[in-house]
Amino acid sequence: MNYAVVLAPNFALQALRRSEAALANKPFAIVEGEGRNARVTEASEHAIGVEPGLAVTLAMSRCPGLLIRPRDPNAESEVMRVLLAAAFTLAPRVELTAEGCCTVNLQGADPIQTEKQMHACVAELARAGVGARLGAGANPLLAAYAARCAEPVLLVSNPAAFLAPLPLSFAEPSSVHADVLRGWGIKTLGQLTTLPKTEIGERLGTEGAQLWERAAGETIRVLRLIEPVRTFAADWVYEPPVESLEPLLFRMRRFAERVALELRGAGRVADNLALTLQLEDDTDHHREFRLPEPGANVDGWMRVLQAHLDTVKTEARVTGVRLVATPARPPERQDGLFDTALRDPVAFWENLARLAAIVGDDRVGTPVLLDTWQPDAVALTKPVNAVPAPEDDSIHPPRGLTFRRFRPAWPADVAIVDARPHAVEAVELHGIVRVARGPFHLSSTWWKSGAAWALEIWHVELASGATYQLSRTADGWCVEGVLD
Q1: Which of 118, 176, 185, 182 is nearest to 152 (CA)?
Q2: ∠ CA(211), CA(212), CA(217), 5° rounding?
Q3: Strands 101-105, 94-98: pairing kind
Q4: Between the CA of residue 354 and those of 244, 348, 371, 384, 400, what are the distances in Å?
Q5: Coil, strand or helix at 177
Q6: Quick one: which of 283, 338, 346, 275 has its CA closest to 306?
């Protein structure tokens, strides 16, 4: 198995059905031409009695309710990108061979592992709404023949036995040669290759000898390789514009499936997603999503996107969408012997991402103290995959009183006598100050506009004997906590 071919039969039909949700399980046909010259080129399996070549009027009379559609170049281009992305998951050497067909050079790959990847590739394409066949053989021609016969994967290990019963049309003879060979009683590739190649060449010329080589699966060619994608993005336009969530999510999922396949083909995962909605009034709605766990899981992406879109109300209809995935290397880590890992990490990260889509990325995470004198100065960071083992106790244990902070702090009214707190009145606290120590002044970042802060702190002992910490800012007094 040196080569593989990924083939999407009825390519134009599949592309149209994948882009229009209304065509699912409906009889429809693709037509070309106008007026009386309009002819059916492809028909869905639900279009009973409709075959390629029929006039449109005859097709509609045979199948009442038949939907007529022209080809959609944008939908076909998108499905072709999906096929190429799937092909790159097999190997990095890929050729765009024809519409709905690409060839992969598998030389040097492990045969057993490659066969598993082929089945996984076809399954992945099916989930992305593309029915594909995959064939493999010693050369591109044999792989192409195998793909046409695959259900859905076929590996040719014995070329002669595989080729013998195939119809002569597989070798694509010219109409003249087809008539001549039919007169000789030759209907299959095996019947043609039983004749000597030199005699076929003498009677049918150079083209006849080339036909014999195609029938024997001996044609060799060099692949015209293409470069894999470097940016992982999707843009699409809605005509007419949409104003409900269902059609928006349907098309969004289709493009997300393609982007995820391209990431996997490049050996990457998504670290961030960026979504932009173009609106009918020439404005747009933009939002970025930080994925807590980098990955290429479309279901997880869609849950995050839908959780956000459920909260979005726009002033105009949506005319277009752009989805961009920021690539990153797949995360690699080795668990520690005593680490406590998540029982269901996938569900955890997905729920965290959905929560961030609702409340914002800057409001979800694990708080970490910042290296500053500002009380309660924290930053939200990405949660760890596993809880590490607890650190050893400090050699020098803490000394002095323990400060137990109230969250949130209690707003308070403080009476001042001789520039010192005299009495404190709060919702859950009131009393006369017996001892007051302070003030202790803290301030920082005065050089940054909008980020400066300043505190005046007092430790007060009330008549009840309890000791509290008070703080005063420009907004007033509060009880920050108790010392015990």
Answers
A1: 118
A2: 95
A3: antiparallel
A4: 20, 10, 30, 18, 44
A5: helix
A6: 275
β-strand 318-328 against 269-279: which pairing, if any?
antiparallel
Per-residue confidence in pLDDT tens, the chain, 484 aa: 799 999 999 999 999 999 888 888 899 999 999 888 899 999 999 999 999 999 999 999 999 999 999 999 999 999 999 999 999 999 999 999 999 999 999 988 887 888 899 999 999 999 999 999 999 999 999 999 999 999 999 999 999 999 999 999 999 999 999 999 999 999 999 999 999 999 999 999 999 999 999 999 988 889 999 998 889 999 988 888 988 888 899 989 999 999 999 998 888 999 899 999 999 999 999 999 887 678 888 988 898 888 888 888 888 999 999 999 999 888 765 555 445 555 566 667 667 777 777 777 778 888 888 888 788 788 888 776 666 666 777 777 777 788 899 988 999 999 999 999 999 999 888 899 999 999 999 888 878 777 788 899 999 999 988 999 999 988 899 999 999 8
Q: Report residue 48 CA to chain centroid gap.
A: 36
Judge whether 289 and 361 are in contact, CB under 8 Å: yes
Backbone phi and psi for residue 385, each to the nearest 5 degrees, phi listed first: -75, -25
Distance CA 57, CA 266 (A): 47
In angstroms, rounded to a whole number, what is the distance separating the alpha carbons of residues 350 and 306? 12
Name the phi and psi angles at 87, rounded to 5: -65, -35
- Alpha carbon 418 to chain centroid distance? 67
CA–CA dist 45, 41 (Å, integer): 13
Do 255 and 263 touch, CB atoms closer than 8 A?
no
Are the C-beta atoms of residues 47 and 63 closer than 8 Å to each other? yes
Task: Tell me the pairing of strands 378-381 and 366-369.
Answer: antiparallel
Beta strands in 71-227 (DSSP E): 94-98, 101-105, 133-137, 153-155
Q: How far apart are CA 132 and CA 82, in angstroms?
A: 11
Q: CA-CA distances (angstroms) from residue 229 to 77, 97, 264, 402?
A: 14, 17, 11, 58
- Count of residues for the chain? 484
In angstroms, rounded to a whole number, what is the distance separating the alpha carbons of residues 467 and 470? 10
CA pair distance 67, 159, nearest whole angstrom:
42
